[in-house]
Amino acid sequence: MAFSDHLDVIGPSRELGSVRFDVTADPPDRPQVWLVAPDGPLPDGVSWEELRAAGFSGSVRSVHVVASPTSHVLAGTGPAPTVDDWRDAAGLGSRAASPHTDLAVRLPDDVTGEVVRAVVEGILLARYRYDALRAEPQGHRLTHLALVTGAAHDETAAAAALGVASAGATALARDLANTPHNHLTASRLARIAVDLGAEADLEVEVWEQQRCRDERLGGLLAINAGSEQEARFVRLRYVPPGAPTGRLGLVGKGIMYDSGGIGLKPNDDSHAQMKNDMSGAAAILAAMLALPAAHGTAEVVGYLMCTDNMPSATATALGDVVRGRSGRTIEIVNTDAEGRVVMSDGLALAVEDGVDAIVDIATLTGAVARAFGSLLSGITGSDEALVASVAAAATSSGEPVARVPLEHRYRPQLTSQVADLRNLGPTGQPDGIISALFLHEFTEGVPWAHLDIAGTAWSTVDAGWQTPGCTGVGARTILAAAAGFTA
């Protein structure tokens, strides 16, 4: 099977753009999702006494369907809901109302813009299903969503539009990472970036294989050496309508499929998930496409380092030494530590372009995945203000992070006897830290933050706004961080 068009792989996310939205103070005659706190307002004819008797208290992650002609769904927010609680409640309510494609969501009259954004994200992402390869569509996609609130119309509508943009970014990142390797190569991803970039008025530049050689992307090409598929480097540029508040570089790992190279991975379930090893590049592409809708004020440049990592007679061997864009040499002591090698070229290019700061994102290390599990991404960096800003963006986006120390006393673990540095420390050393130190070598003093999403890019959870498979993690974080960046 092959897609008739390279954009067919992103069907689910593109459908979000066709959902019609209303903001109204008058409840429409259609199924409604009520997001309610304990003892909060209820639909006419419904009482807390009967709800409690039925086992519904309005607590977090509780849902109750009211049997009525309009099929009200009540989703609990808890007594003092956080933004995450609102997003979770919206997702659970959307699922409970999933047979309905025309939906209204009841919100308090004092709702904030941040909550409106999160609610829209939860409603839309709960309906996400990657079904591009199925004979029949899965689930029930929304066609119309009304937000029912007495809050100011224009502010609510603007916040809802931002929610649509951020949900769309996550859905697109999910689409790309969920697409199997035999349907999404580096060259095909580059074509998608060109086409979608044109729709979003981004500048897009693609370097094909020979251009990558001419431009000395030795790290990218070393990992590509065993593949029959060509590598691609994609540079995207967003220019704001006014004077830029700064210039931000975003570097994404785009390993379209990671076999481990000549140091082959074990044949287990995690190996079968390696189509998602390009989740970092997917998050950056998706976030940058949403920047116009988010009214980003900074110039943002994205660097997508795209190839697969395959074994063959031409593959890079253990102990090989390669020279990357920076001019420094790298001893490849482990071909399954490939992400940092391709990222080194992207970081060098960002430095050359004179960006004010760099944020990179990658499914980089099993060490971070083991340390923080599937709920927390790792974050570190060289600039405390930048790291704090990205961490705040992650928290507000419902993509929480935990700090990885950039402990420079581990830097000697990268010492090579034959090259400027090696791509992996000795066995038993903390690779989450050492991999970050490796990347830091190529930032040349530019403020830098690093997101390791190895543990959070894949999930088995199927509840609320979360769906099993590739999570699209990082897209909302990168969008929020980039939209508000100031040098």
From TrEMBL:
Coiled-coil portions: none
Domain Cytosol aminopeptidase: start-end pairs: 334-341
Cellular component aspect of the GO annotation: cytoplasm
GO terms for biological process, alphabetical: proteolysis
InterPro entries per record: Leucine_aapep/pepB (IPR011356), Macro_dom-like (IPR043472), Peptidase_M17_C (IPR000819), Peptidase_M17_N (IPR008283)
A GO molecular-function annotation: metalloaminopeptidase activity
Pfam family membership, one: Peptidase_M17_N
Keyword check for Membrane: no
Keywords tagged on the record: Aminopeptidase, Hydrolase, Protease
Family in the record: Belongs to the peptidase M17 family.
Function, as annotated: Presumably involved in the processing and regular turnover of intracellular proteins. Catalyzes the removal of unsubstituted N-terminal amino acids from various peptides.
Designated name of the protein: Probable cytosol aminopeptidase
Species assigned in the record: Cellulomonas algicola
Gene: pepA_2
